[in-house]
Amino acid sequence: MKINGLLIGALVLAASQAVALPEDANGNGTYSMDEMVAAFPELTADDFAEIDANSDGEVDSVEYADAIAAEIIAE
Predict the structure, then answer these.
(1) Among residues 60, 1, 70, 2, which one has the least CA distance to residue 35?
(2) Phi-psi region for residue 17, left (φ > 0), alpha (ψ -120 to 50) or beta?
(3) What is the mean pLDDT of the chain?
(4) Fewer CB under 10 Å: which end of the chain, C or N?
(5) Cα–Cα dist 26/22, whole Å
(6) Furthest-apart CA pair in the chain: how many Å?
């Protein structure tokens, strides 16, 4: 029982430290400029272009995590 309690505590802690993603308003699994600006009002077009590594006009979860790691956006 003690191990289960520790495991549950660790999982709760890990979940609380997970990266919060912007709202995916259209449900397509990526984030548009508008969706990113809704979450990060200070985000510029140049910032978005830097985050959008493959230049497809959308930010996927990997690009989003990379942007946080590069401190382009804050958690």
Answers:
(1) 60
(2) alpha
(3) 84
(4) N
(5) 12
(6) 52
The answer to whether 40 touches 48, Cβ cutoff 8 Å, is no
Domain ranges across the chain: 20-75
**Token pair recorded at residue 47:** 């910032």
CA distance 37 to 56: 17
Total-model pTM: 0.71
Exposed e or buried b for every residue in 44-54, given b needs 16+ CB within 10 A? eeebbeebbee
Domain 20-75 fold is Recoverin; domain 1 (1.10.238)
> What pLDDT is stored for residue 75 in this prediction?
79
Which residue's structure tokens are 């978005």?
Answer: 48
